[in-house]
Amino acid sequence: MVAENPLFHGSWTLKKFKATVINDIWPEVMLFTLIATMVTLVSTLTSHSLAISNQILTVLGTVLGLVISFRTSSAYERYSEGRKLWTNMSIASRNLAQIIWIHVPTDRIDKISKERQSTLRAVIEKKSMINLVQAFSVAVKHMLRGEGGVYYEDLYPLVCFLPRYCHDKGATEDDMLPMWKASAMDVEKHQRAYTLTSRNVSPQASRAPSQSPDMSLEKAELGEADGLWHPSIRGRPKKKFDPEQALPFVYSEHPLRPARNPPKESIYDYMPFLHVFKLILKPFSRRRHQEKTTHGIPSRSFTGKKLRPEAIDSNVPLEITLFLSSYLTWLLKNGMLQPALATAMTNGIASLQDTVTNLDRIRNTPLPFAYQAHLRLSLWLYLFFLPFQIFDAFQWLTIPATAFASFLLLGFLEIGQEIENPFNYDLNDLDLDQFCLSIQRELQEITAHTSPEPEVYIFSPWNQPFAPGDRRNAEEMMNDVDHAYHGPDTGMLSIRRTLLKSWWDVDQITRQ
Fold it and tell me: What digits encode the pLDDT tens for the residues 386-408?
């Protein structure tokens, strides 16, 4: 298999250009190119030569190349580890869903009344807990992107049924459970940082969430009912790809933020040199207060360099695993799960907790500042003195040679910085949205499984278990009672001969 060349695969678009690090390194490349131009002009047009000995150039260049290579490799290891951890989360989610859906019994007898419980009740219970498994990956995605709380279009519909208070009688805001209290505080912080648009309508003053909102159809059609907001009604733009439409339509006490909130794109993202004019015109602009922002900070600096969102602490994944653990305890208490399966479910929940902890470690553990600062300063000094050392050999070619060396070395250094935290919205980051949607599709497929009895599908005309040695189907073999397969003395011997013939046929057919 030949890998595709990313530069020439498909059409070259502005988005591909945006995925490069040109926007991040162009000011430094321009600076060192100007220095090379100055050295060349002074040394050529005047009697003073700025050239110096190049004895140290080779040694320092080799050392810097090795250090930059190590920097890029260590960053890619973090990128690769992040992808592996998301794979572990997908596996643990599938395993938990299979245990809940298949092994937790549907046929139950009430211990008090000794009557058979409703099948619908058991199915709703199991499907709701699988929805919590799905919500875990979504909550981790928002946590890694610096988006706190649960009030998102792809998360809130999956967790809104969870209890809000530590008790039901006379509950106040002081009795609100940590997940909901922290989420409400995050919403208030978000509202102070942003001007809400038509998508996020201005909410009422902070109030305690309603546990079981009762809304009339008239108010629901307006998108508002007793201070509650519907994510799909008011001001929601129509999109070609809108996976949130597959989620429940529920009401919330706060406006739901979009599931995906990447930085707003502008012409400055594709033409980085225009940032210079933006800086010049900024004092005269009337819209200074409406600068493009993401997570409360500008998405780029005035030079075009990407600015990372601040890391936040989120207790939503932890709260979800606590509810899954309490559900496991309830199953064991009521004798609905065998010990071996309970161990497997415990390991699955522990795997989810281990995964989110390691993902948080990658996000919150950058390379030490001293290492990054020293490496960048060393590279700057190397590029600063480079034109002085190569002028005697290159003359006028000193300018393009310095520009190329700056672009090459600074680019590799910036790539390491770019992929060190692979959980944001850049095109070089991991596609967390697709990972979550993949988990959602897998869990839906699991709950679509009907758990039929084996006799229904094994002994059918569609099954040829002994092919190619015996191409009869299972139904024909079972009905042919005069065959040697059914003989008390020849049965197993004849079956073994057929399977041995199948091995020989397969071995011959599949070899070239």
Answer: 999 999 889 999 999 999 999 99
Contact 483, 472 (CB under 8 A): no
d(CA 311, CA 323): 25
pLDDT digits (tens, 9 = 90+) for 175-213: 888 888 888 877 766 655 444 433 443 333 333 344 444
Please give the C-alpha separations between residue 496 and each of 291, 311, 452, 492, in angstroms, as whole numbers. 76, 63, 29, 6
Entry field: residues in the chain: 512
Residue 227: is it exposed, middle or buried by C-beta count within 10 angstroms (0-12/13-18/19+)? middle
Q: 142, 95, 76, 101: which is closest to 350 by C-alpha?
A: 95
Amino acid at 490: T
Among the listed residues 179, 96, 84, the one whose alpha carbon sits nearest the alpha carbon of residue 349:
96
- Contact 162/251 with Cβ under 8 angstroms? no
Answer yes or no: pTM beyond 0.70.
Answer: yes
What is the chain's alpha carbon radius of gyration, rounded to the nearest angstrom? 31
**What DSSP element (H or E) covers 246?**
none
Q: What is the DSSP letter of 282?
A: G
3-class DSSP state for residue 298? Answer: strand
